[in-house]
Structure formats: C-alpha cells, structure tokens
C-alpha cells in the first residue's frame, strides 16, 4: 500500500489517494470495501462546484434568457403578422386582376384566369 502511494505521489500534480482509493487499487474492487456513494464525487460535480456561479447568478441568467426568448417571440409574431398582411394584399391584387384562388373568400376549387374565354 505504501509503495502505491509513493508511486502515485511521484507526479507533482497528483491528488493524494484516500485510504479508500488505496484499498480499491490494492485489493481490487469488491463489495464491502468502500461504503457510501463512491470513492470521489464525479468530475462533473467538481466542475459545477468550481465554476463559481452562485444561485443568484444562475437565476439572473435564466431571467435574461427568458427575456431574450420573449423578445424573439414578439419579433416573430410581428413578422408573421406582416407576412399575413402582405399575403392578403397580394391575393386582393390578384383577385382585382381577375384571378381566383382555391383558398379564402369563396374562391373556386382551382386557380384559374377569368377573361378572354379561358
């Protein structure tokens, strides 16, 4: 066990092994050697803990994201409204030129041009 610890500590950046880690490495993993949730917290938990973001920071970011999303939704609704108005204007123009449409205001079931006997 001591040799394992010495070999591990040769690397200056190495994190010292806990007694549980040494037991698992020397005796091989088996039920009952280490009790609890595991040897160490997962790296993802260490990353989250070391990120330094407080609960207030996270809540502020959530509020900013919601505000940006709501703004984007409002812009898209406005663009959709303009598109619908433009489409209605185009249809009205086409009707005034003698075209009929298969959609809206009692048009025929197929597009056609009325005039010149066609």
Explain how this protein is built.
By secondary structure, the protein is mainly α. The protein folds into 2 domains: 1-52, no CATH class; 53-118. It is 56% helix and 3% strand. The chain starts with a helix and ends in a 5-residue tail after the last strand. 0% of the residues are buried. The model is unreliable at 106-113 (pLDDT under 50). Residues 55-96 form a coiled coil. Residues 99-118 are annotated as: Disordered. Keywords: Coiled coil. Residues 108-118 have a biased composition (Low complexity).
Summary keywords:
single chain, mainly alpha, 4 helices, 56% helix, rod-shaped
Main β sheet profile: 2 strands, antiparallel
Arithmetic mean of pLDDT: 74
How many independent structural domains? 2
DSSP strand count: 2
Low-confidence stretches: 106-113
Percent helix, as a range, is 55-70%
Strand content: under 5%
Helix tally equals 4
Neighbour order of strands in the largest sheet: 1-2
Keywords: Coiled coil
Region (Disordered): 99-118
Biased composition (Low complexity): 108-118
Coiled coil: 55-96
Indicate the topology.
Blueprint: H1 2-8, H2 19-27, H3 43-50, H4 55-96, E1 99-100, E2 112-113
Antiparallel strand pairs: 1-2
Task: Give a short summary of the structure.
By secondary structure, this protein is mainly alpha-helical.
